[in-house]
Amino acid sequence: MTAALPRAFRWFWAGETVSGFGSWITMIALQVIVVDHLHAGTVGVGWLNAARWLPYLLFGLVLGALIDRVRRRPVMIGTDLVRALLLCAIPALWFTDLLDLSALVLLVALLGTATLVNDSASQAFLPRLVARSSLQPAHARIDGTNAAAETAGPALGGALLALISAPLAVLINVSTFLFSAIVVALIRVDEPRLPHAGAASATPSGSAPPQQQEPRPPQSSPQPEPQSPPSKRRLGHEIAAGLRWVYSTRTLSDLAVWTHVWFAGQAILAAVTAVYFLSDIGLDTFSFGIVMGGSGLGGIAGALSSGAVGRRVGTGRTVILAHICSAVGVLVLISAGLAADGGTGNGRSTAASAIILFTGMFLHGFGIGLSNSHEMAYRQSITPDRFQARTNTTMRSINRAVIVIVSPLAGFLAAATGTEFALVLAAAIFALTAIGLWFSPFRTVRLDRG
Fold first, then answer.
1. Contact 352, 343 (CB under 8 A)
2. Structural contact between residues 24 and 296, judged by C-beta atoms closer than 8 angstroms
3. How much is the pLDDT for 136?
4. pTM for this model (two decimals)
5. For a tag site, which of 80, 83, 183, 218 has the least CB within 10 Å?
6. 430: left (phi over 0), alpha (psi -120 to 50) or beta
7. Rg of the chain's alpha carbons, rounded to an integer?
8. What is the arithmetic mean of pLDDT over 409-423?
9. Closest CA to 156 of 289, 298, 283
């Protein structure tokens, strides 16, 4: 099956996969640093998550427009190298006793900026590697191996943390970023230096783009479009054009808005899981890594199922089903608290709770793996090449802005009311996204894969 996709994609896929493994190890290590080394609790985890995504709020729209002006491969290579350098600072500060929450938050914010640039470039780069009719299976492959990284990364991270200190574990990610930079450098693909920015708007006279509910993507990769001098393009107008494209295309707008809502639930979940698992349930770091890996295992199953489910029920209904899985998964996580103390605070063994937590994370990850390739393929298949980076960064910037705002609030909420209440709220938000999409035109969307 992989042979059906071009060699350039396979290099790209390899870099994404390996760096994904390292990034998941880093994510586990950072949470352990905050909870166990810095003793910052849910509030600290909330600030850490906010710092990770703050660059999307501050720079996302601008960088999307800028990346649409330049070749994307050199950007990806450069940001991989920058991220490797930033991660080296964590063990350096730890060895010199200078690592505190403020320093860690600053480093994570810088790392998030480099990741924003890299992600924007890589997502806009993929449609230049494969035919648009192959975007869904290409994304499904990436999602599958990313989910494998999400499974093995936390487990490996948990094992490493049982042997070495968390600040040292991030050095694994340094090597994976270097590998990614090397393999992306090996990719050979023609890229225009200055792709057409589409003037100030998606359509003539600044009118809204046409509504597209049943896209029929072309059967070959898009060709570079006519060049336009940068002096004729105004950055503000290009940003506005990207916003109009996303929020004036009806079904794309439906997907964007409800995805923003979904990220509010995800921000709450991410802010409380480390404290809920480590402190409330009482998992050790190894078990924590194994349980977090359940999400990745579910993601593999979801990605492997995504093509068949999409063909059977359509793209829109597949995404809705995925959000239902996420809501159910969080409800299962809540039930683990009852297993830990029998509902009466008696302090039962955490083994049963760990199994329940793993199941809940599996269901949540299954939903993400099931939906992601369909969401990405849909928005890329209907988006012109000149808008690819702006479409991606517009949606991702708003999504991450939601995380920046909600994560600290979720930390304070959990500190005041308990992690269980925060988890109930997350489950309700995931359910709301499924309901909202069900009553929108996006429900009927189907991707034509030719």
1. no
2. yes
3. 77
4. 0.69
5. 218
6. alpha
7. 21
8. 90
9. 289
